[in-house]
Structures are given as structure tokens and as C-alpha cells.
Amino acid sequence: MNPKGVFAIAKREFFSNLKSVRMLILLILFALAVIGSAYGLAVLSTKPEMIPNPDVAEALSMGPNAVLFISASFVALVGSIAAISISFDSIVKEKLQNSLDLLLCRPLSKREILLGKFLGLWAVLSLPGIIMLLAGIFSVTYVAGMPSEKMMFGFIVFTVIFFGIFISIQQIFSTISKTLGTAILSGIGVWFLFTMFWALIPLSIAYVLGINIDPSLGDITEYNLLRSRVDLLSPIGAYDLSLGILEGGKGVLPEGIPYWAPFLSLFLWFLIPLLISMEMFHRRTE
Amino acid sequence: MCVIEAQNLTKVFKGFRKSFTAVDSISFRVEKGEVFGFLGPNGAGKTTTIRMISGISRPTSGRVSVCGYDSILDNVKAKKYVGLIPETPGFYDEMKGLDVLCFYAEFYGIPEVERKRKARELLETVGLKDFMGGKVKTYSHGMKKRLALASSLINDPEVLILDEPSTGLDPKGISLFRKIVKDLNNKGVTVFLSSHILSEVEQMCKRVCILSKGKIIVVDSIENLSKKIGMKTQMNVFIDAEGITDNVLDIVRKLSGVLRVEKTGTGINVVCSRNISPAVNEILVRNNVKVSSIRVTEPSLEEIFLKLTGEQNES
């Protein structure tokens, strides 16, 4: 292990991205999504009569924890884009600009190089991210009251883990891609899969298995269980369910899913793509 | 003492449908303090071999060690002793020249103050002193090559591996490059030089390895190769002289070893299988021919290279 080498790579990734124009754009988007959604939802929670959808009005009226939980959906949407945008070229650019060999010939392993890059990217997204999240919590506290400590802690820690998941996934694509276009396109594909198409999976399975999905037609407990199980297989689902437990307690999960499952899923989503990206980088640079 | 040792080194790239053997069971040794030339036509497997020696790529089979450390088992230790200049080095555009060297120095645990001092010193050595504060994106290809040389020396390597070092350099740059490499070699640094410029290899190396289609054709000193190949190759004796008659030409033609005699504007060119210049000179002088110069051209490394790689292709 060469910790100095890992730190050197992480530091370079951190500062080169921190000073970049794309970081500035991402920070603006992130500020709008995190602070804007938290503040807006907090204001709405104090005036439920302004919300046309009674379900949303009911959810928001449950207090600042619920506000933070709902604003986490916006965080997940923009946070995943931010993670993809910051890391899509981390490896492929090295290949294209011929700087990879000069890095690979240094006295540290390929896995350490990838780890250094991951840590740098994670830090550059997490540090301003944490500031934005704190600002979001402050907005909610200012308008709708203080969320629970557990919820605030989870909101920050799970979001930071969430950034790491998408950075690792994107690093896999950056390693296997030969062009910047392929790398970014793969990232966008993953983003679409987890944000847009994932919801269709439990619906499709329910349709095939003949499980009821309409509450007006009867009990949908079986569908809820199926949906939660499928959500555990998605990083966004694992993030939402984990925060959901902190917001509403163990009862938010359908029977059949242990309360620790979302946390385990989130942890595994963090660990497995990171390990895969390290292994992929090791093999692909042969 | 052996600094680089390759034993049955093989690299196979596996594709979906078929595999490609880039390096096929090659073995060679490079001794300490040597300047070792590594030659071969395009696609011979030179860069793949260099990547394996530098610890970047794993051999499919066989092994290579640097300063006694196995490139797979002791990969990180082996890399500490190597300085590499790739054929087309690239850097981080947004970084300054000085920062690039300081960045690479961090991998070797060099303290910050020492890092900056050393980086400045190296940039001065490679002629980039005035550009150390400039961003790499403003550097020309030649300047990047010089920066690569500086970056390869940041760890005071025992072995310097150069992959086509003169590509993209102007004559002044080439001259400086060679001077620096020679100075380093005089200080005991072993140099592994892969080059297409055969005159460069001829000037700098004593021993060469010629590679073709992933296989070693020959590993020997240039002197020995000249002798071996020279026996089979033609040699030219150019004679500038006045008053060469047809009668004299006939006498020269009858000499043993002469293949043919051609008239040139200033004299004759004797094509022969061995150096017969003293005998030709004697005949000319005896026949009152005024000889102004005799020039013998032996097979160059280029001829040796073309002959050996040509033979390999034919076989």
C-alpha cells in the first residue's frame, strides 16, 4: 500500500475538479435542487391548503422529517447526475490524453490508483454537497421546525454514500469506454435506468404474475412487498428506503423485508461497484 | 550485474474471436550500466515489452525482473527503480510543468521542499526552466517529451526506459536528449532504448536486441552483428582517382572477392564481399593512377536490421 500515492491522486482529482467550470454549474444545480426543494417543501408543509394533491399535502403535514425525506428525492435526482458528470471522464480522459502510462508506472498498484481517483471525486462532490445539505436542513428548520437528529444525520450520511455509489458506477464505464461520448452515454443510461425505468420493473412483474396494483380494486400489500424488494436492488431505492426508515420508523417497510435490509443494500451498493471498478481498471489497463 | 532479466516473456491479447500474441516467449538480459538498444519494425512488440518491464502490463506467461524484483510479484518495488518515457507522453493540461513533476514526486515519498527543488533542477536540465510556470496545455509536443524525461528522472531511477525518445523532437532537442541520457549512463543509470532511428541506436548502444513479430531475432553487440552480417553482405569501396584505364579496371575485376566494378563520376566503386581496399589501392598505385581518396562502407545497423527482419519475414 502506498498511501502517499493514493493521497496524491485524490488531491489532484479534488483540486482539478474543484476549479473546473462543470463543478460551478453542478454547484448551482445542486443548490437549486437541495436548498430550493427543502425550502419550497418546508413552506408548503406550513400551508397544506396550497397543495392540490391531498396525498402530498398529508405527507408534508407530518413534520420537518417528512419534508427532508421528500426533498431527498430531488437530492437523489440531481446528486446522481452530479456524480456522473464529475466522474465520467476520470479514466477515459487519462487514456485519451496519454497520461495513463505515466501514472501506471509509478510505485503503486492499479487498484490504489483507482481508489485515489474515487476518493478525490467523492471528496470534491461531498464537501460542497454537505454544505448544501446543511443549508437545506437549515431552510427546513427555519421554516418548518427542526428535523430529528437521526434524520439529519441520515440525510447527510446516506446522501454522501449515494454520491459514492454513482461515482463508482461511472468509474466502471469510464474504465471500459474508449471515448468520452461512450462514457457519458453509459452514465446517462444508468441514470435513466434507476430514475425513470426502475419503477416499471415491479409493475411489469406484477402484470406478468397477476398481482393487483390498484388500491381501488383491492389489497395491494403483495405489490408493495414486490416493489420494496425491487427497490432494494436499486441504489436510489435503497437510499429512499433507508431514509424512509429514519423518517417513519420500521413500519414503513412492508412485512417480509427486515428493517436492516435497506441499510445493507445501500452499503453493498457502495462497496460492490467500487470493488468492481477497481478490478475492471486492473484488468483493462493490461 | 543483471538489471533487467526477461525469461520466456509472453503477452497474448485475447479478443472475442481470436487471440493475438504480441510478444512470444522472449528472453534477454540487460547488464547494469549498459545502454541496450531494442529494435523492431512497427508491431514487433516493442512497446508491449516495455509496458511489461515497466510493470504496467502483466505478462501472460514468463517473467521479467527489474533490479532483482519480479514485475508481478514485487510490482510496486520494481517500479520504484524504473523511469519511463512513453512514445507519446501526455500530461494533465490544467497543471503547470513544475506541478506535474511535484505530483509525480509524491508517489516516491519525497518531502515537499525536496520535491520542488528537484523538480526545478530537472526542468532546468531538460531546458524547460523558463516554462515551469506555464500550463502543460501550452507546451509543444517536444516540450512534453522533455517534461516526460524530467518526470522519469524524479525518482533517480536505476533503469531508464525510453520508447522512441526522439519522436517529435527538433534536432536541438534530440541532441540535448542524447546528451542527458549519455550523462545519466555515465553516472551508472542503465538505459533501455527502443527506437526506430537506427543511427541513434548505433550511436548510443553497444548491444541491441532485434525483435520481429513478437520474437527475438538476435541479441548481440552491434560490432558482432556487423561481422556476422558483413560476411554475407556486400561492401562498397569508393575510390576517387584520376587516370583509371579499362586495363586497370580489368585487373581490379579479377581480384578475389570483387563482385563488380562500377565507374562513378570521380572514380570507381568496387562492390565486394570483403574489404579489399588495400589490394585495390596497391593495383591503382602500381598502374600510376592518382588516388585522392578511398572510402569503405560496411553494413550499417540499418542494413543489418533490414536484412534480419527481412529474413524473418521471408521465413
Largest sheet of chain A: none
Q: Unreliable stretches of chain B, pLDDT < 50, 5 or more residues?
A: none
Number of helices of chain B: 11
Counting DSSP E segments of at least 2 residues, the number of strands of chain A comes to 0
What structural class is derived from the secondary structure elements of chain B? alpha/beta
Describe this protein's structure.
The complex is a heterodimer of chains A (286) and B (315). Chain A is mainly α and 286 residues long. Chain A has a domain at 3-190. Chain A is 78% helix and 0% strand. Chain A is built from 13 helices and no strands. Chain A has helices at 3-18, 21-46, 54-60, 64-87, 92-96, 100-104, 110-144, 149-176, 180-197, 200-209, 221-232, 235-248, 261-284. Chain A starts with a helix and ends with a helix. Chain B has helices at 46-53, 75-80, 97-106, 112-125, 141-152, 171-186, 198-204, 222-232, 246-253, 277-286, 301-314; strands at residues 2-14, 19-31, 35-39, 61-66, 69-70, 82-85, 159-163, 190-194, 207-212, 215-221, 235-242, 258-263, 267-272, 290-297. Chain B has a 6-stranded mixed sheet with strand order 6-7-8-3-9-10, with helices on both faces. Chain B has a 4-stranded antiparallel sheet with strand order 2-1-4-5. The mean pLDDT of chain B is 86. Chain B folds into 2 domains: 2-227, P-loop containing nucleotide triphosphate hydrolases (Rossmann fold, 3-Layer(aba) Sandwich), CATH 3.40.50; 234-298, Alpha-Beta Plaits (2-Layer Sandwich). Chain B is an alpha/beta fold and 315 residues long. In chain B, helix 3 packs across helix 4 (112-125). In chain B, a hairpin with a 2-residue loop joins strand 9 and strand 10 (215-221). The longest helix of chain B has 16 residues, at 171-186. Chains A and B meet through helix 1 and helix 6 of A and helix 2 and helix 3 of B.
